[in-house]
Amino acid sequence: MRILRSVKVMQKITTNLRKRGKSIGFVPTMGALHAGHFSLIRQSRKENNYTAVSIFLNPTQFGPNEDYRRYPRNLKADATLCKKTGVDFIFNPARNQIYPKGYKTEIKIDKLSDLLCGKFRPGHFAAVATVVNKLFNIVEPDTAYFGQKDAQQAIIIQRMVKDLYMRLKIKVMPTIREPDGLAMSSRNNYLSASERRDAVVLYNALETAKTMIRQGISNPSKIILTMRKIILKKKSARIQYINIVDLNELKTVEKIQEKVLIALAIWIGKTRLIDNAIITPARN
Ligand code: AMP
Question: Could you confirm whether 37 is annotated as catalytic?
Answer without folding.
Answer: yes
